[in-house]
Design a protein that fits this description.
seven-stranded mixed beta sheet; 406 residues; alpha/beta; binds magnesium ion; elongated; binds adenosine monophosphate; 6 helices
């Protein structure tokens, strides 16, 4: 057994440095939601494509309205009507107005628009009761997006806004990174699947489901590869098979130093390069991060809370990087501790909790359970607050760094 013990940041950097993005593929726009752009996407067109009306009204020459007022109404002849989708081919002459509908192009010559509600119209004429300046109520060409600007850099996750922007440029297909195929393995003689009959000494496998859901929330799908017994040969074979078919393998259980903890030994036997086998933090110190045949294997603790700690702090950033995301590290914020945390922290301690906003600052509320083995510790957790190594009890009101995990 090696002794690759690291501070969290060092462990993370080691792992991230070895993670590579997958190759790219071109997919139809309708399938692109949640995918990661492979390269910068530049605007092909100005948005809007032409000066347009933001409302239903009349377009005219602003200079015609100089002395218009309630007492001195201005009557203009309506030369044409321009609905959305039509294109005005005639130049609008001074002294005339064009009826214009929302989204329609402003006719040449016109430089201001009045909304219907502020006019009176009859028999081909419209009456205005106020003066306008050039540009009033006109949305100018390129005001929103201008041609050639980068609408989204490579590494951007295609969320609703980006999806819409890509569509507004008329792209019907996009080049994105391939999505990693993630395999999950559970390890432990004690494990049963929900639905199985309980026997003394056995427990239900909850890690599998917790990981699957957490991955889904991060935008990843995964496949459950099954549960293995605490048996070195079996684990070695499982891992070898898994890395031949999957881009990433996540396994829980068997990463500590017990007689039946075989994950690291199996990885070593299979010829893996083991980068990290302990992180100086609590919970989640026991883990095993390795590369087997170039495939990252994340060996997490069997203890649910510990597994999720290491998963969020190391596996998630690594998965984001592998999937091509430019922003792969967890967002870090400052939080104010709501209640005093009494225990000492010889090692860096990760606290799970929820956030509230009080007087403009983020306040951290500790989850009731924080133990390694707790299955409820992650309930409603939004952030992981960090108590630095060597701390005594930490008083309410203390400001701590925290990782955003949702
Ligand atoms: P291990 O990491 O194998 O030493 O397991 C640590 C603790 O986590 C033990 O109490 C196990 O029973 C429990 N455990 C292991 N795997 C799972 C799992 N898939 N779901 C829930 N608990 C587990
Ligand atoms: Mg075990």
């Amino acid at each position: 057994m090696k002794n690759n013990v690291f501070e969290l940041e060092d462990a993370l950097t080691l792992v991230l440095d070895r993670c590579r993005c997958l190759s790219t593929e071109v997919i139809p726009l309708e399938k692109a939601s949640g995918r990661v752009l492979a390269s910068d996407l530049n605007a092909r067109y100005d948005v809007p494509l032409f000066d347009k009306s933001p409302l239903d009204g009349y377009a005219f020459h602003a200079s015609d309205t100089k002395s218009a007022s309630r007492d001195n109404p201005l009557k203009l002849a309506v030369a044409e009507e321009i609905p959305a989708g039509a294109y005005p081919h005639k130049k609008l002459k001074k002294g005339y107005a064009a009826k214009i509908l929302t989204g329609a192009p402003v006719p040449e010559g016109a430089d201001a628009i009045v909304k219907f509600e502020d006019t009176e119209s009859s028999d081909g004429y419209v009456t205005l009761f106020q003066s306008f300046r050039s540009g009033d109520n006109i949305v100018h060409r390129g005001e929103d997006v201008s041609i050639n600007e980068i609408i989204a850099p490579g590494g951007t996750v295609i969320d609703a806004a980006v999806h819409g922007m890509i569509a507004s440029q008329g792209f019907s297909a996009v080049e994105v990174y391939k999505v990693p195929l993630i395999g999950i393995i559970s390890q432990g003689n004690e494990l049963l699947e929900p639905g199985d009959t309980l026997h003394p000494g056995k427990i239900y496998n909850s890690n599998r489901y917790m990981l699957t859901s957490a991955l889904k929330k991060e935008g990843f799908s995964s496949i459950y590869l099954g549960s293995v017994q605490d048996n070195l040969d079996e684990i070695t074979n499982y891992l070898q098979d898994a890395v031949s078919m999957y881009d990433v393998v996540i396994m829980t259980g068997g990463v500590s130093v017990g007689t039946y903890d075989f994950t690291e030994a199996a990885l070593e036997r299979a010829g893996a390069d083991i980068l990290v086998d302990k992180v100086k933090m609590k919970p989640g110190s026991s883990c095993c991060m390795a590369f087997l045949n170039g495939v990252p294997v994340f060996g997490l603790s069997g203890n649910p809370s510990a597994a999720m700690t290491t998963f969020h702090l190391i596996t998630v950033p690594a998965l984001r990087k592998i999937s091509g995301q430019a922003e792969y590290r967890l967002q870090k914020i400052s939080v104010r501790l709501a209640e005093t945390f009494k225990k000492k922290s010889p090692n860096m301690r990760i606290l799970k909790g929820r956030l509230s906003l009080e007087n403009g600052s983020a306040v951290f509320h500790l989850n009731q359970h924080q133990e390694n083995g707790s299955v409820s510790a992650m309930k409603n957790a939004e952030v992981f607050a960090v108590i630095p190594a060597g701390s005594g009890s930490v008083h309410s009101g203390t400001v701590l760094d925290a990782y955003v995990i949702s």
